[in-house]
Amino acid sequence: MAEYERRIASGELLAGDTFQLDTIKMLQRLYEDLLENEDSCQLDKCKDADKKTRGMWLWSSLLPSQSYSKVKGLYLFGGVGTGKTMLMDLFYEKLPSTWRKKRIHFHDFMLNVHSRLQMHKGVTDPLGLVAKEISDESILLCLDEFMVTDVADALILNRLFRHLFNNGVVLVCTSNRAPDQLYEGGLQRNLFLPFIDTVKERCLVHAIGSSTDYRRIGSAEQGFYFVGHKYNGYLMQKFLQLIGKDTPQPQIVEVVMGRKLKVPLGSDGCAFFPFEELCDRPLGAADYFGLFRNFHTLVLEGVPKFAAHNRTAAHRFITLVDVMYENRARFVCTAEASPLELFEQIVTISDAEKISNAKSSSLNEKGDVLDLCVDNELGFAKDRTISRLTEMNSREYLEQHEANLSKAA
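Structure tokens predicted for AFG1-like ATPase:
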């Protein structure tokens, strides 16, 4: 709370958002609960008592006993740009450095889980072993952008988190969706529903009701986002300008589990891709995380408008933007339309139901039938992507990117 008030006083944050204030009070209470139960939660990895018991964790994992933490976690959800990630990060930064804690994007977390499962292939209960490894490393787990779109993730989440909570893990997470809306409309969702009950049992659920998108308050400008195919030639010039005297070459980067990603052109931390090479191929979050471990700038040519005919590419583009934003990378692109217009033909089931007369309501101004894509996950995720694309082209974001490069150098 003190740090939140300091940032408001210094002008880093805007005052007057009662929704954020309510959330920071929830986080303050959680912080105090964790301090009060530090020993029973075995948070401090440096304490002698913790060192003595650490060797017993593997054996205790074989016993059919429950050891839920006395402290309940926190599930924060709300609209895009309302400050969920900022508040969770503020909370995380103020935790003692000696605590067993981890802050990670949900995409990255699940990639890590699948990688560990692959390593323990053939073990009787690989998921239990993976959960034990994670809880040994981090009793306090902070997950950003909790969202479930993959059936493989959906089918293991309940068992995974049952193990984690049984090992004493305290979960803090952010999401655009309320727990009951997670994986809505997904394949075999009935097998996923117990996970929702598990989360609500072990976490306090708190909605951030602010309607303000703070990402759009900054000086959003065109930045490096160019609308129209006429800029494709200029895009290559901009790429060459960014890499300076270096000569771009095709490159190959390593991603998880031995996979490799071919980069058409790369040099000096900048990668150049046609849109089709990055979003029309069977790539996913693992490939994108691998990309941004090696490059701080992505130059992407030809982002199209999204609709039913390129639904899969839309899913990949949203994942790409999420990973890029998480890594605070710079985005340079040409696109068919503005961020808002890219997704105007993506609608949720609820939006689609409001169309009373499909034949007349689904016509555009020219009288052509719109290629509407009815997809709940895309419909909810598109607002986050539009918001992030807007912020990533703001002066503040680009200046921070330059500052990060200078610091790294």
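The longest helix spans residues 18-36.
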